[in-house]
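Sequence, please.
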C-alpha cells in the first residue's frame, strides 16, 4: 500500500483492475460509438423508406374485371404515373382451382399522369379472377 497525504493508504495503480476514471472513459467512448452507429442505421432506414415511396414512378389498381368468355377477361385499370414516364403493368388471371390461366404485360406510354384503360387478358381456360401483379418503368 502506498501512503497518501493525510494518512490514508491506497492500493498500487493497476494492481486491482482499472481505476474508476478509466471505466468512465471507456463508458463514454462506448456511448459515442453507439450514438454514431445508431445515427448511421437511422439514416440508412430513412433512405430506403424514402426511395421505396418516392422512387415509385408508376402505380395502378384494378377497378373491375369481367370474364367475357372462356378465353378472355376484360380488366379496367387505373394507372397513375408521371406524365413523362413510360412503363408496363403485369396482370394475371386464375381459374377456380387456383391455377394461373393467363398472364400478360400491358404498356402505358400515354403522356398523361392518370390513365384509365380497359385491356383484354387472354386465358387458356375460364378464369374466375384478374389481379395486378406489378408495374414497372422502362
Amino acid at each position: 500500500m502506498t501512503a497518501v497525504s493525510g494518512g490514508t493508504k491506497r492500493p498500487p495503480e493497476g494492481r486491482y483492475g482499472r481505476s474508476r476514471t478509466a471505466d468512465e472513459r471507456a463508458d463514454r467512448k462506448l456511448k459515442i460509438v453507439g450514438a454514431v452507429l445508431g445515427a448511421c442505421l437511422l439514416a440508412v432506414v430513412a433512405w430506403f423508406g424514402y426511395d421505396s415511396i418516392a422512387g415509385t414512378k408508376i402505380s395502378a389498381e384494378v377497378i373491375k374485371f369481367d370474364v367475357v368468355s372462356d378465353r378472355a377477361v376484360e380488366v379496367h385499370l387505373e394507372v397513375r404515373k408521371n406524365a413523362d414516364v413510360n412503363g408496363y403493368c403485369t396482370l394475371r388471371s386464375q381459374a377456380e382451382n387456383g391455377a394461373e390461366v393467363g398472364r400478360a404485360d400491358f404498356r402505358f406510354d400515354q403522356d398523361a399522369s392518370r390513365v384509365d384503360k380497359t385491356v383484354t387478358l387472354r386465358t387458356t381456360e375460364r378464369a374466375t379472377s384478374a389481379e395486378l401483379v406489378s408495374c414497372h418503368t422502362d
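The CA atoms of residues 75 and 119 lie 5 Å apart.
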